Amino acid sequence: MTNQAVSLIQSDRAETWQEILSDLITDPQKLLRLLELNPDTCPYSLEALAQFPLKAPRPFVERIEKSNWNDPLLLQIWPSEFEDNQADGFVVDPLNEEEFNPIPGLLHKYQGRVLLTAAPHCAIHCRYCFRRHFDYRANSPSRAQWEEAFAYIAADSSIEEVILSGGDPLAISDKQFHWLLQQLANIKTLTTVRIHTRLPIVIPQRITRELIDCLNETRLRVVMVVHCNHRQELDSTVTDKFDTLGEAGVTMLNQAVVLKDVNDNADALIDLNKALFKHNVLPYYLHMPDQVAGTEHFYVTDQHATALIKTLHASLPGYLVPRLVRENPGERGKTRIA
Question: Is the dihedral angle over the CA atoms 210, 122, 126, 73 positive or is it negative?
Fold first, then answer.
């Protein structure tokens, strides 16, 4: 076979999710070139980048409209100079998660369920992330520490559900994910595993045959909560993967964050929830942004968010209206706003 033929075959081969994950856009200048944007129009913050680097997968970036600084997907990932603002009430750990972190990698805040930080990294850095300051180095368990976490769960018969979060739990390999799921299934009191992930949206190639087989094999009920904020995040590759997960018996929910200038209008939320429902994903939460240092420019008022929910109630069937909530430190569950 000639070198030219080999090259043609390689260029036609679909990228794996691992290859996409290893080729994230991390340079703001490169992102500006790809999107044909003028850097003088909306400068980026070097301080914000040092604290929380730019990370964006190419499949997600390809859905951003070129030459549009107001694109709702771009606004979620651009390290704006607004992040340098020091706003009252916006702090590093607004949920006081350190108080609920008895074992590396495990958070126990709510009755009947615990959260495991299955991965210390994400495929994308959403600039409003409430864990942008979280100490992942102290919460990346070794194999021995994982065993300690499993023993903690097994010793508390009130724990029926484990939430896999992170980072993003699907950022780990199929092999590691399978091992983790097997260990959880061995705990007799557990009934449900809930996977909070953005990867099926930002890198839909992550939904592999191996992952589907793993989810099919477990005795645990599998719930997947995806994180989609805007209809534009959904292309046919993403929705095809939603269909595949639904066919595999995975309960699909969506958790969105209401974000200023991104989706803080009724039309955007109505379009999003209708599009999700076409592919068997039900709205779960519409989350108020957590008051994290560096994210004040995304914040919306309770009054504005409540008005949005009222409009959604008047425009959609009840099962397409998410619960408007916020998370307050020390509370044993989400606080419903409207």
Answer: negative
Nearest CA among 214, 197, 199 for reference residue 254:
197
For residue 280, what are the contacts with CB-CB under 8 A and spacing of at least 6?
242, 243, 246, 252
Q: Write the burial class of residue 93 (CB in 10 Å: 0-12 exposed, 13-18 middle, 19+ buried).
A: middle
Is the preceding peptide bond at 89 cis, omega within 30 degrees of 0?
A: no
R_g of the chain, CA atoms, integer Å: 20
pLDDT in tens, 49-78: 888 899 999 999 999 999 999 999 999 999
Q: Name the stretches of the chain with pLDDT < 70.
A: 1-13, 92-100, 132-140, 330, 332
Alpha-carbon gap, residue 95 to 336, rounded angstroms: 16
CATH architecture label of 97-336: Alpha-Beta Barrel (3.20)
pTM: 0.90
pLDDT in tens, 267-319: 999 999 999 999 999 999 999 988 887 888 899 999 999 999 999 999 999 99
CA dihedral 269→272→275→279, nearest 10 degrees, is -120
Where do you find CATH 3.20.20.70 in the chain? 97-336
